[in-house]
Amino acid sequence: VFLVFGGKTGWVGGQLMELLKKDGKDARAAQSRLEYRDAIEKELDEIKPTHVLNAAGVTGRPNVDWCEDHRIETMRANVIGTLNLLDVCHQRGIHVTNFATGCLYQYDDKHPIGSNFITEGDEPNFFGSFYSRTKGWTEKFVLEYDNVLNLRIRMPISDDLNARSLVTKLSKYPKIINIPNSVSVLNDLLPIALDMSEKKVLGNFNFTNPGAISHNEIMTLYKRYINPDAEWSIFTVEEQDKILKAGRSNTELDVSKLKALYPDLLDIKTSIVKVFERMRVRLDLKNPILPE
Question: Rg of the Cα trace of the chain?
Answer without folding.
Answer: 19
